[in-house]
Amino acid sequence: MLNIMKKYQNAFSVSGFETQLANIIIEDIKDKVDSIETDALGNVIALKKGKDSSKKLMIAAHMDEIGFMVVNIESNGMLRVANIGGINAIASSYHNVKFQNGVNGILVVEDGTKAADINSNKLFVDIGCDTAEKAKRKVSVGDVCAVSPMIKKLSSKRYTSKAFDDRICCTISTYAALNCDTPAYDTYFVYTVQEEVGCRGAKPSSFAIMPDYSIAMDITPAPACGNPNHFTVKLGGGAAIKIKDSSVICSPTMVDRLTELAKENDIKYQYEVLLAGGTDTSQMQIAGSGSHACCISIPTRYTHSPVETIDIDDLYACAKLLIAFIEKGM
Amino acid sequence: MNALYEIIQNLTSYSGVSGFESMSFQTLCPYIKSLNLFDETGTTPVGSFYGIIRCGKENAPMLLLDAHLDTVGFVVTELCDGGFLRVAPVGGIAPKILPSSIVNIYGKKTIKGVFASKPPHLQSAGESEQKMDIADLSIDTGLPLEELKDIVRIGTPVGFPCELQKMLNDNLAGASFDDRLCGAIILRALQTIDKSQLNYDIAFQFSGNEETGYKGAMTTAYRLNPEKAIVIDVTHANVPGAPDVFKDIHAGKGSVITLSPQTNRAFTKQVISIAENNGIPYQLSAFPIRTGTNSNAVQTTRNGIPVCLISVPLKNMHTMSEVVNLNDALNTAKLIAAVINQKEQSND
Amino acid sequence: MIKYLKKYCDILAPSGMEDALRTQIIKDIKDSGCTYNTDSVGNLIVFKQGKNRRNKKVLLSAHMDEVGFMITKIDDDGYLRFNMVGGIDRRVVSGKRIVFCESGIQGLVSSKSIHMQTPEERGKCEPLTEMYIDIGATSREQASKYVSIGDCAAFMPNYTELGNGLICSKAIDDRFGCAVLVAMINSQLEYDTYFAFNTCEEVGCDGAKVVAHFLQPDIVIALESTTAGDVAGIPENKCACKVGNGAVLSIMDRSTIYSKELLELAVSAAEEKNIKWQYKNVIAGGNEAGVYQRAAAGAKVLAISAPTRYIHSQSNIAALADMEAVAKLSAALNERSFD
Q1: Which residues pair with residue A65 across a beta bridge?
Q2: Class of the CATH domain delimited by A67-147
Q3: Residue C244 has pLDDT above 70, yes or no
Q4: In this predicted model, what pLDDT tens digit does every residue of A30-65 receive, in sequence order?
Q5: Cβ-defined contact of C315 to B120 (cutoff 8 Å)
Q6: Environment class of C203 (CB within 10 Å of its CB; exposed 0-12, middle 13-18, buried 19+)
Q7: Could you check whether the bond before residue C174 is cis, i.e. omega within 30 degrees of 0?
């Protein structure tokens, strides 16, 4: 699983520009699934036939990450950028960034900006060119970049990287697709696009599939230090079964079933009540006549920063729980 | 009015915090079925109950009546020493109504709790002027933590119990009138119609997940695929200090018919004329943007469903003491029945 | 005691309106062989002969009244403006049901719903001037048929048993004290004893002032509800006392420094009879003991309290076991001659 993780973390996949990662994923799983396709938006939809084909299970993890798009190339060669998704301007500034075409740059802040005043309007990218002409040979308006990949192992089975949100769950999905026995139901592994800009990929893919049961795989913020109030999950506390976030209240039947499976299989779990932030879960819940929807979250510290941090034990707990549901169903 | 009161009494007795509607299906569904109104009933994954009255004609069009089943409430986020619970709100609840309020905690069994208030000797000067945050409040269950853990877990829903209280002028106070009351109104209306005269099917959806994004309405309407729909919800009645926009909606003056881009103008006008022709009192309200009800979700389902929004004036929405005038409720039931009785309903 | 408690908790008796409760108490004690009279301000004073006489005049006291609401104005559209009778935090009243004493008219305290609050107002509790009581009336004329300015209301009766031996009611403060006294009056006493059921404690211990002057007792034991602060997030040293930890003995509060002698007597009685007790560990609040201590020629005073959470709201919570402890401890103390 760690190899898949490293491979996925290093791929380029900003919201709306997920092709590179999509191709890697397709390569990884195409031999282990019954069919695989890419839809109009770029969602990767892989089907693994189940024992009972009268029911459908949809699993969604999103491929995209937050990033920046060049909106203007200034005469001095600096690139004005706009944010794609909910970036944390302070956390992203003064980091290396990389464009889809491989050009390296640094994301910096206008001179004289006080720390408290840093916001996405103050950010620009320096790629080392000192005129607009030179810069335009490297990038053009509309090109996108993201914080450069940099995955590191910390002590105690913890890893830090940008974009664990939500690559790490793509990793879990792929791992599950490769390692599960015959699924209980026809199981659709969906790698969605454009989640960070409003769950745009999950909507049509859920509609196309019309699942009976659905599980989103996503990250959830875990507290680090400071005031830990208002968080119900902790890093290393196991797979987080979502109760609610601001977009959805998970179906109690799914929450109960996942709890039961976690207990039966001795998988460490915890419950998640997230007061802010949404996931693909809501879109799957409302597809067609509606589905029983839930979300398995992996606790992650410092979300939407270049140093998102996860615990490997949580990673395996999430994967085991997902596989248990795929194999056993309701 | 007694028949309506009885249905209200029943419907408000079931739990149904948004997202957790299915917890009450075991008791709610048998009750609604016992009214013998529907030819088919069912529930959906998104917490909705529905019932269909078939007119017996093949491929008959369907009129959908929507009210939402879910109520505002809380979910448990932490179990603390001494038997206290911390919670997060589900739907919009003002913290100011909470201290000393009694709540039901729907765990393995239902237990009571009281929202704790800070003892006066620990309050500092000016504290009563500060903002309260629900995350800082706690619910006192009185149970030892170990015992509590057997009953409650993170994610257990918590809601206001409904204590019905009759007031002057046929006013009635209770909890979860938003929107159980409207479910009761629809059921009452369906009790009064002549089913043998129907030339189209009628469906009632008691939809879930309204307070958290209209999810039950859109998915159940998708399943039922009606030709037209009437959404019945509560709206704010004027009270002292109310913003101007609610000043002209009065409890006791009739159903409120809403004009909005999120509802169908022609259908709405038809309902208004039915009210006029039958001498049923009504009031008009205008929502130029969002109605804050299921109307938009239903209207944009499948190929689009013409929707009329009828509301019942309600005071103190989202509290344990919502107040409705039963005459408004009765008149709304009459209006719905009158709309159903217009045989040309599906031919305009 | 519990049968009295339940009955008394559900009676309406905001300060100044204690008649219904007093009538009930008289019913419950009249066959006990005591003598009683109601004084000019409504206090009920009871004397019960014991097996023996003692030199000191000993009084056990509890108050009948509870906090409530009084109508101060009737709006044109039938809503009632009000003020608190006694110290109610305005943050515990919004949305709560109330009932008027004489007319029995039911209503509720209300204010703008969350949807009507501006973003700045969200989370805050508005001033009392923006709150109102709704009884369903639609005009001043109509409301005036049922209520008038000066009418008093109390929280709706709501006696409930929670789990773990706890009870919840609007008026455990101080109906529990009344219940303990009534149970004592109906028991065989060792010594002659006076009992007082007072009015208007919540608005300044007015009843006790008169009783103190009339009886001029030597020793007074006040039975009260005291704030228990053992709620989530409150540090141990600020709790004052804890529900479930037994009868509370106060050393000092904002109105009284209690008699050291009586305190020692109480502690020894508790230890001897194995009654659970605790000290109140913060200096806060006050009660009738202060009045008794300094009225007429003065008295030695002691307060034995039941720890109660959320007093002065619709949901006082207390433990039956603590109340039993208070009852046992006051009975044990009353077996002393105090010479």
Answers
A1: A14
A2: mainly beta
A3: yes
A4: 999 999 999 988 999 999 999 999 999 999 999 999
A5: no
A6: middle
A7: yes
Q: Is A278:A286 a contact under the CB 8 Å cutoff? A: no
Q: Is C110 an 8 Å CB contact of chain B?
A: yes
Which domains, and CATH codes, for chain B? Answer: 2-71+163-347 (3.40.630.10), 73-159 (2.40.30.40)
Query: Chain C 225-264, CB below 8 Å of chain B: which residues?
Result: 227-234, 238, 240, 243
In angstroms and rounded to an integer, the radius of gyration of the C-alpha atoms of chain A is 20
List Cα–Cα distances, C92 to B24, C79, C96, C239, in angstroms: 30, 19, 8, 20
pTM for this one? Answer: 0.87
User: For the residues B157-180, what does the mean pLDDT come to?
Assistant: 95
Residue B345: what pLDDT? 47
Say yes or no for a CB contact (<8 Å) between B155 and A255: yes
Per-residue pLDDT of B309-329, as tens digits, reads 999 999 999 999 999 999 999
Question: CB-CB: which of A232, A273, A288 is closest to B219?
Answer: A288
3-state helix, strand, coil in chain C (%, to 5): 30, 25, 45
pLDDT band at C238 (very low <50, low <70, confident <90, very high): confident
Please return the burial class of B31, using the count of CB atoms within 10 Å of its CB with bins 0-12, 13-18 and 19+: middle
Give A2-65+163-328's CATH code, choosing from 3.40.50.970, 3.40.1120.10, 3.40.630.10, 3.30.420.40: 3.40.630.10
Question: Which residues in chain A are closer than 8 Å to B209, comparing Cβ atoms?
Answer: 249
3-state secondary structure of B4: helix
Q: For residues C135 and C79, give the distance between their C-alpha atoms in angstroms, rounded to a whole number.
A: 7
Confidence of residue A116 (pLDDT cuts 50, 70, 90): confident
Q: Where are the alpha helices (DSSP H) in B13-110?
A: 25-34
In order of their start, the domains of chain C are 2-66+170-334 (3.40.630.10), 68-155 (2.40.30.40)
The CA dihedral of B246, B247, B252, B254, to the nearest 10 degrees, is -60
Q: Where are the beta strands (DSSP E) in chain B?
A: 40-43, 49-53, 62-68, 73-80, 84-90, 102-106, 110-115, 139-140, 157-159, 165-166, 171-174, 201-207, 228-236, 255-259, 282-286, 307-315, 322-325
- Locate B262 and state its tokens: 């999120």
